[in-house]
């Protein structure tokens, strides 16, 4: 008999899990796949911890039936995956690889047969190396190439995919990758990062145009990552500092979609550094086509306050110092805050706050939580199980925070846990584990963790204890 816990979600709420192609698929040189910028970056000495790379990863390209069976065992109602651009179009444009298309058709078919709604992300950072060699996202043409790739996938998968996301975490693909240099291609130039951010948004808009042309019955949107900076006090300076943080991290990518412009105050601060987004006529209209939904990736947040000694905006400073000056806020590390094993504060209150902020800022758009999860490096114990108590507590607290947002009127349609599998965690390599399922990367053995079983019960009951 099914129980009815006190924290109960709407009857049509979609529970599921998420992954991305480079992090799980492996098979890097199989069936016509060409290199991406992450293949090149990961094989550059010093870029990734332990020199790890995604050549094999979780070998999900070969183990797709096993992974879909695990999703079904968990009770997932949706699965968010990404499509590897260089697997489908090895040169980034032109020739389409039929074996790449066949793999994603097979994945979608397996999901649908299992009663799981496919949720496809078109760009999760694996730009074909061939396009990067021509300038990558610095080159405006890449946005058009992305739209052509999107069109190929819309034609191939059509309405068998009910949910599409264009670009995953554009902040990471622009600033973390081109200004901070921690992700591929590893550049450190703030001006380039702002250009890349604009071209990513333009690519999103052009892909939306291709989707609308086809009059497909599914839904489409973008999936930015957001965080939340809670003012340390009600001092107006602390509040203003947190607003700058929202401008820099959240609004820079969401305002163009819903308001057709960049946040004016932050654009003015960039201009003081001589940096402007390369906007051409018609760009903002293309970017601001009304999406059907918004994907939200949330992991952490913090308290923040105005700095005692604010940094001046100076064109000659390093990109990191310029970004610190643009935000002009200090993070406050409050003693006693628990952290995950990647050292991120556990701040579920920020989850509720950022969702209600989105409700108020953008007219309460339909939202899917496309990523939320915790790094918990607990290994398989002597009993053959993985007792990842930190992840269970993190998920429990964030699910309650999500429920609070829904009760507050936020239009939230589903939640995708990050991640289904332990995987290649970008610059951290294989040392940071986010999976509901433990992967032994030597044998590829999958072991569902305590969090997998907890989440399975949550899905079965469509809710949990308070």
From TrEMBL:
<dbReference type="InterPro" id="IPR017853">
    <property type="entry name" value="GH"/>
</dbReference>
<dbReference type="InterPro" id="IPR018120">
    <property type="entry name" value="Glyco_hydro_1_AS"/>
</dbReference>
<keyword id="KW-0136">Cellulose degradation</keyword>
<dbReference type="GO" id="GO:0030245">
    <property type="term" value="P:cellulose catabolic process"/>
</dbReference>
<dbReference type="InterPro" id="IPR033132">
    <property type="entry name" value="GH_1_N_CS"/>
</dbReference>
<feature type="binding site">
    <location>
        <position position="23"/>
    </location>
    <ligand>
        <name>substrate</name>
    </ligand>
</feature>
<feature type="binding site">
    <location>
        <position position="299"/>
    </location>
    <ligand>
        <name>substrate</name>
    </ligand>
</feature>
<dbReference type="GO" id="GO:0008422">
    <property type="term" value="F:beta-glucosidase activity"/>
</dbReference>
<feature type="binding site">
    <location>
        <position position="124"/>
    </location>
    <ligand>
        <name>substrate</name>
    </ligand>
</feature>
<keyword id="KW-0378">Hydrolase</keyword>
<feature type="binding site">
    <location>
        <position position="168"/>
    </location>
    <ligand>
        <name>substrate</name>
    </ligand>
</feature>
<protein>
    <recommendedName>
        <fullName>Beta-glucosidase</fullName>
        <ecNumber>3.2.1.21</ecNumber>
    </recommendedName>
</protein>
<dbReference type="Pfam" id="PF00232">
    <property type="entry name" value="Glyco_hydro_1"/>
</dbReference>
<feature type="active site" description="Proton donor">
    <location>
        <position position="169"/>
    </location>
</feature>
<keyword id="KW-0326">Glycosidase</keyword>
<dbReference type="GO" id="GO:0005829">
    <property type="term" value="C:cytosol"/>
</dbReference>
<feature type="active site" description="Nucleophile">
    <location>
        <position position="371"/>
    </location>
</feature>
<feature type="binding site">
    <location>
        <position position="418"/>
    </location>
    <ligand>
        <name>substrate</name>
    </ligand>
</feature>
<feature type="binding site">
    <location>
        <begin position="425"/>
        <end position="426"/>
    </location>
    <ligand>
        <name>substrate</name>
    </ligand>
</feature>
<comment type="similarity">
    <text>Belongs to the glycosyl hydrolase 1 family.</text>
</comment>
<keyword id="KW-0624">Polysaccharide degradation</keyword>
<dbReference type="InterPro" id="IPR001360">
    <property type="entry name" value="Glyco_hydro_1"/>
</dbReference>
<keyword id="KW-0119">Carbohydrate metabolism</keyword>
<dbReference type="InterPro" id="IPR017736">
    <property type="entry name" value="Glyco_hydro_1_beta-glucosidase"/>
</dbReference>
């Amino acid at each position: 008999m099914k129980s009815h816990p006190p924290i109960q979600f709407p009857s049509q709420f979609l529970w599921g899990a998420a992954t991305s192609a480079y992090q799980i698929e492996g098979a890097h040189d199989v069936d016509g796949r060409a290199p991406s910028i992450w293949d090149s970056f990961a094989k550059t000495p010093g870029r990734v911890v332990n020199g790890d790379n995604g050549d094999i990863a979780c070998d999900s390209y070969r183990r797709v039936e096993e992974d879909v069976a695990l999703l079904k065992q968990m009770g997932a109602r949706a699965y968010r995956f990404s499509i590897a651009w260089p697997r489908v179009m090895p040169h980034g444009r032109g020739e389409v690889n039929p074996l790449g298309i066949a793999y994603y058709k097979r994945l979608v078919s397996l999901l649908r047969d299992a009663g799981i709604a496919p949720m496809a992300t078109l760009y999760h950072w694996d730009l074909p190396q061939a396009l990067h060699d021509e300038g990558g996202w610095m080159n405006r043409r890449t946005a058009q190439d992305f739209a052509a790739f999107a069109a190929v996938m819309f034609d191939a998968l059509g309405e068998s995919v009910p949910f599409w996301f264009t670009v995953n975490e554009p902040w990471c693909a622009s600033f973390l990758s081109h200004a901070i240099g921690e992700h591929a291609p590893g550049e450190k130039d703030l001006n380039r990062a702002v250009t890349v951010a604009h071209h990513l948004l333009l690519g999103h808009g052009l892909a939306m145009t291709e989707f609308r042309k086809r009059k497909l019955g599914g839904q489409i949107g973008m999936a930015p990552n957001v965080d939340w900076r809670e003012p340390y006090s009600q001092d107006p300076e602390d509040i203003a500092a947190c607003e700058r943080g929202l401008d820099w991290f959240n609004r820079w990518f969401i305002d163009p979609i819903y308001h057709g412009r960049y946040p004016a105050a932050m654009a003015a601060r960039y201009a003081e550094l001589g940096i402007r987004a390369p906007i051409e006529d018609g760009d903002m209209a293309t970017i601001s086509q009304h999406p059907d939904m918004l994907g939200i990736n949330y992991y952490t947040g913090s308290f923040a306050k105005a700095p005692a000694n604010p940094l001046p905006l100076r064109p000659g400073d390093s990109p990191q110092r310029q970004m610190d000056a643009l935000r002009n806020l200090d993070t406050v590390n409050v003693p006693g805050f628990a952290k995950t094993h990647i050292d991120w504060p556990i701040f579920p209150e920020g989850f509720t706050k950022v969702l209600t902020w989105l409700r108020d800022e953008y007219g309460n758009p339909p939202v899917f939580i496309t990523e939320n999860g915790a790094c918990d490096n607990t290994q398989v114990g002597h009993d053959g199980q993985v007792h990842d108590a930190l992840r269970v507590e993190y998920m429990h607290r964030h699910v309650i925070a999500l429920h609070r947002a829904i009760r507050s009127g936020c239009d939230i349609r589903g939640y995708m846990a990050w991640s289904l599998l332990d995987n290649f965690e970008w610059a951290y390599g294989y040392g940071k584990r986010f999976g509901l399922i433990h992967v032994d990367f030597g044998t590829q053995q999958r072991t569902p963790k305590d969090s997998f079983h907890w989440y399975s019960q949550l899905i079965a009951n469509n809710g949990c204890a308070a």
